[in-house]
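Would you mind writing out a protein's amino acid sequence and the numbers that encode its backbone to help me picture the idea?
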Amino acid sequence: MSVVTPALGRGDVEVLRDEIDRRWKPADLCGLLSDPDLDVRRTAVVTMGLVGDRGVIGCLTRCLHDADAQVHQFAEDALWSIWFRIGNPAASERFRKGLKFLSDEDFVAAAAEFNQTLDLDPDFAEAYNQLAIAHYLSGEWDASISACRRVLALMPTHFGAMAGLGHGYAHRGELKQAIDCYRRALAINPQMTAITDAKQRLEAELARDPVEGKPFGEADSYDSESFNFEFDPTDRS
Protein backbone atom coordinates (compact mmCIF):
# COMPACT_ATOMS: atom_id res chain seq x y z
CA MET A 1 0.00 0.00 0.00
CA SER A 2 3.02 2.32 0.08
CA VAL A 3 2.27 3.40 -3.50
CA VAL A 4 -0.95 5.13 -2.43
CA THR A 5 0.45 6.79 0.68
CA PRO A 6 1.70 9.97 -1.10
CA ALA A 7 -1.70 10.54 -2.73
CA LEU A 8 -3.44 9.90 0.58
CA GLY A 9 -1.17 12.37 2.33
CA ARG A 10 -1.96 15.05 -0.26
CA GLY A 11 -5.67 14.21 -0.30
CA ASP A 12 -5.39 13.79 -4.07
CA VAL A 13 -8.40 11.57 -4.74
CA GLU A 14 -8.02 11.55 -8.54
CA VAL A 15 -4.42 10.32 -8.40
CA LEU A 16 -5.45 7.80 -5.76
CA ARG A 17 -8.21 6.45 -8.01
CA ASP A 18 -5.80 6.16 -10.93
CA GLU A 19 -3.24 4.27 -8.85
CA ILE A 20 -5.87 1.85 -7.58
CA ASP A 21 -7.44 1.30 -11.00
CA ARG A 22 -4.04 0.41 -12.43
CA ARG A 23 -2.98 -1.93 -9.64
CA TRP A 24 -5.98 -3.45 -7.86
CA LYS A 25 -9.53 -4.64 -8.21
CA PRO A 26 -11.99 -4.04 -5.34
CA ALA A 27 -11.66 -7.67 -4.27
CA ASP A 28 -7.90 -7.17 -3.89
CA LEU A 29 -8.46 -4.23 -1.56
CA CYS A 30 -10.98 -6.24 0.45
CA GLY A 31 -8.31 -8.87 0.97
CA LEU A 32 -5.99 -6.26 2.45
CA LEU A 33 -8.50 -5.48 5.18
CA SER A 34 -7.61 -8.73 6.92
CA ASP A 35 -3.85 -8.32 6.49
CA PRO A 36 -1.92 -9.03 9.72
CA ASP A 37 0.02 -5.78 9.22
CA LEU A 38 -1.93 -3.08 11.05
CA ASP A 39 -0.60 -0.27 8.85
CA VAL A 40 -1.78 -2.13 5.74
CA ARG A 41 -5.28 -2.51 7.19
CA ARG A 42 -5.45 1.14 8.20
CA THR A 43 -4.25 2.37 4.82
CA ALA A 44 -6.58 0.02 2.94
CA VAL A 45 -9.66 1.05 4.87
CA VAL A 46 -8.95 4.77 4.46
CA THR A 47 -8.34 4.24 0.75
CA MET A 48 -11.60 2.38 0.32
CA GLY A 49 -13.47 5.14 2.09
CA LEU A 50 -12.20 7.59 -0.52
CA VAL A 51 -12.64 5.55 -3.69
CA GLY A 52 -14.76 2.53 -2.76
CA ASP A 53 -18.21 1.82 -4.12
CA ARG A 54 -21.23 -0.34 -3.30
CA GLY A 55 -19.21 -3.49 -3.96
CA VAL A 56 -16.90 -3.02 -0.95
CA ILE A 57 -19.58 -2.35 1.67
CA GLY A 58 -19.60 -5.96 2.87
CA CYS A 59 -15.90 -6.20 3.61
CA LEU A 60 -15.83 -2.73 5.17
CA THR A 61 -18.70 -3.73 7.45
CA ARG A 62 -16.65 -6.66 8.72
CA CYS A 63 -13.94 -4.17 9.70
CA LEU A 64 -16.30 -2.74 12.29
CA HIS A 65 -15.25 -5.75 14.37
CA ASP A 66 -11.51 -5.16 13.91
CA ALA A 67 -9.59 -5.28 17.20
CA ASP A 68 -7.87 -1.99 16.33
CA ALA A 69 -9.94 1.04 17.31
CA GLN A 70 -8.52 3.13 14.48
CA VAL A 71 -9.41 0.55 11.82
CA HIS A 72 -12.91 0.43 13.27
CA GLN A 73 -13.29 4.22 13.15
CA PHE A 74 -11.87 4.43 9.62
CA ALA A 75 -14.30 1.69 8.52
CA GLU A 76 -17.27 3.49 10.05
CA ASP A 77 -16.26 6.73 8.35
CA ALA A 78 -15.68 4.89 5.07
CA LEU A 79 -19.14 3.33 5.13
CA TRP A 80 -20.84 6.67 5.76
CA SER A 81 -18.79 8.20 2.95
CA ILE A 82 -19.79 5.48 0.47
CA TRP A 83 -23.44 5.51 1.55
CA PHE A 84 -23.59 9.26 1.01
CA ARG A 85 -22.14 9.21 -2.50
CA ILE A 86 -23.65 6.18 -4.25
CA GLY A 87 -26.69 7.97 -5.64
CA ASN A 88 -26.79 8.87 -9.31
CA PRO A 89 -25.59 12.42 -10.19
CA ALA A 90 -29.04 14.00 -10.52
CA ALA A 91 -30.22 12.45 -7.27
CA SER A 92 -27.02 13.44 -5.46
CA GLU A 93 -27.62 17.10 -6.27
CA ARG A 94 -31.07 17.02 -4.67
CA PHE A 95 -29.68 14.98 -1.79
CA ARG A 96 -27.13 17.69 -0.96
CA LYS A 97 -29.93 20.26 -0.90
CA GLY A 98 -31.82 18.06 1.51
CA LEU A 99 -28.79 17.80 3.77
CA LYS A 100 -28.51 21.59 3.84
CA PHE A 101 -32.15 21.95 4.87
CA LEU A 102 -31.64 19.26 7.50
CA SER A 103 -28.63 21.04 8.99
CA ASP A 104 -30.70 24.25 9.03
CA GLU A 105 -33.43 22.36 10.93
CA ASP A 106 -35.97 22.93 8.15
CA PHE A 107 -37.25 19.37 8.37
CA VAL A 108 -40.26 19.79 6.07
CA ALA A 109 -38.11 21.15 3.24
CA ALA A 110 -35.48 18.47 3.89
CA ALA A 111 -38.08 15.71 3.63
CA ALA A 112 -39.38 17.18 0.38
CA GLU A 113 -35.87 17.20 -1.11
CA PHE A 114 -35.16 13.64 0.01
CA ASN A 115 -38.45 12.46 -1.52
CA GLN A 116 -37.50 14.12 -4.80
CA THR A 117 -34.07 12.51 -4.51
CA LEU A 118 -35.76 9.12 -4.27
CA ASP A 119 -37.93 9.87 -7.30
CA LEU A 120 -34.67 10.23 -9.23
CA ASP A 121 -32.95 7.23 -7.63
CA PRO A 122 -35.25 4.79 -5.77
CA ASP A 123 -32.24 2.64 -4.77
CA PHE A 124 -30.41 5.45 -2.95
CA ALA A 125 -30.55 3.96 0.55
CA GLU A 126 -28.99 6.92 2.32
CA ALA A 127 -31.68 9.25 0.99
CA TYR A 128 -34.24 7.07 2.80
CA ASN A 129 -32.08 7.21 5.92
CA GLN A 130 -31.88 11.00 5.88
CA LEU A 131 -35.62 11.12 5.21
CA ALA A 132 -36.09 8.95 8.30
CA ILE A 133 -34.00 11.42 10.30
CA ALA A 134 -36.04 14.38 9.04
CA HIS A 135 -39.26 12.63 10.06
CA TYR A 136 -37.79 11.61 13.42
CA LEU A 137 -36.70 15.15 14.25
CA SER A 138 -40.21 16.32 13.32
CA GLY A 139 -41.71 13.85 15.78
CA GLU A 140 -43.24 11.74 12.98
CA TRP A 141 -42.37 8.35 14.41
CA ASP A 142 -44.44 6.21 12.02
CA ALA A 143 -42.99 7.91 8.95
CA SER A 144 -39.47 7.58 10.36
CA ILE A 145 -39.98 3.87 11.00
CA SER A 146 -41.30 3.36 7.48
CA ALA A 147 -38.28 5.13 5.94
CA CYS A 148 -35.84 3.13 8.10
CA ARG A 149 -37.42 -0.07 6.86
CA ARG A 150 -36.87 1.06 3.28
CA VAL A 151 -33.19 1.67 4.05
CA LEU A 152 -32.76 -1.80 5.51
CA ALA A 153 -34.52 -3.44 2.58
CA LEU A 154 -31.84 -1.89 0.35
CA MET A 155 -28.89 -2.00 2.77
CA PRO A 156 -29.43 -4.63 5.52
CA THR A 157 -26.17 -3.77 7.32
CA HIS A 158 -26.91 -0.04 7.64
CA PHE A 159 -26.35 0.24 11.38
CA GLY A 160 -27.54 3.86 11.45
CA ALA A 161 -30.93 2.94 10.00
CA MET A 162 -31.25 -0.04 12.34
CA ALA A 163 -30.57 2.25 15.30
CA GLY A 164 -32.99 4.81 13.87
CA LEU A 165 -35.66 2.12 13.65
CA GLY A 166 -35.09 1.46 17.33
CA HIS A 167 -35.51 5.16 18.12
CA GLY A 168 -38.85 5.21 16.33
CA TYR A 169 -40.13 2.19 18.22
CA ALA A 170 -38.87 3.65 21.50
CA HIS A 171 -40.81 6.85 20.96
CA ARG A 172 -43.94 4.82 20.21
CA GLY A 173 -43.46 2.98 23.50
CA GLU A 174 -42.72 -0.35 21.77
CA LEU A 175 -39.67 -1.01 23.90
CA LYS A 176 -39.16 -4.69 23.15
CA GLN A 177 -38.99 -3.93 19.42
CA ALA A 178 -36.66 -1.00 20.10
CA ILE A 179 -34.31 -3.16 22.16
CA ASP A 180 -34.24 -5.77 19.41
CA CYS A 181 -33.30 -3.11 16.85
CA TYR A 182 -30.56 -1.76 19.09
CA ARG A 183 -29.24 -5.27 19.59
CA ARG A 184 -29.15 -5.81 15.82
CA ALA A 185 -27.44 -2.44 15.26
CA LEU A 186 -24.76 -3.32 17.82
CA ALA A 187 -24.24 -6.73 16.22
CA ILE A 188 -23.27 -4.85 13.05
CA ASN A 189 -21.34 -2.02 14.73
CA PRO A 190 -20.48 -2.86 18.34
CA GLN A 191 -18.79 0.45 19.18
CA MET A 192 -21.85 2.73 19.18
CA THR A 193 -21.81 3.77 22.82
CA ALA A 194 -24.95 5.90 22.58
CA ILE A 195 -26.90 2.91 21.26
CA THR A 196 -25.50 0.69 24.01
CA ASP A 197 -26.65 3.27 26.57
CA ALA A 198 -30.10 3.52 24.97
CA LYS A 199 -30.49 -0.25 24.96
CA GLN A 200 -29.56 -0.45 28.64
CA ARG A 201 -32.02 2.31 29.51
CA LEU A 202 -34.87 0.51 27.79
CA GLU A 203 -33.93 -2.81 29.36
CA ALA A 204 -34.07 -1.13 32.77
CA GLU A 205 -37.45 0.38 31.89
CA LEU A 206 -38.81 -3.04 30.92
CA ALA A 207 -37.46 -4.56 34.11
CA ARG A 208 -39.57 -2.05 36.05
CA ASP A 209 -42.62 -2.59 33.82
CA PRO A 210 -42.43 -5.98 32.03
CA VAL A 211 -45.61 -5.37 30.04
CA GLU A 212 -44.34 -2.32 28.18
CA GLY A 213 -42.81 1.03 28.93
CA LYS A 214 -44.08 4.53 28.23
CA PRO A 215 -43.26 6.32 24.98
CA PHE A 216 -40.37 8.75 25.22
CA GLY A 217 -41.34 12.39 25.42
CA GLU A 218 -39.31 15.37 24.39
CA ALA A 219 -37.64 15.55 27.81
CA ASP A 220 -36.58 11.92 27.49
CA SER A 221 -34.97 12.21 24.07
CA TYR A 222 -31.26 11.59 23.70
CA ASP A 223 -28.44 12.18 21.27
CA SER A 224 -27.54 9.32 18.95
CA GLU A 225 -24.37 8.54 17.08
CA SER A 226 -26.52 7.55 14.12
CA PHE A 227 -27.91 11.11 13.84
CA ASN A 228 -24.67 12.96 13.26
CA PHE A 229 -24.85 15.97 10.97
CA GLU A 230 -21.18 16.89 11.28
CA PHE A 231 -20.24 14.41 8.56
CA ASP A 232 -19.90 16.22 5.22
CA PRO A 233 -20.05 13.86 2.24
CA THR A 234 -18.88 16.56 -0.14
CA ASP A 235 -15.42 16.34 1.44
CA ARG A 236 -15.02 12.79 0.15
CA SER A 237 -17.00 12.65 -3.07
Notes: DSSP finds 13 helices and no strands in the chain. The mean pLDDT is 83. The longest helix spans residues 69-85. The CA atoms of residues 182 and 198 lie 8 Å apart.
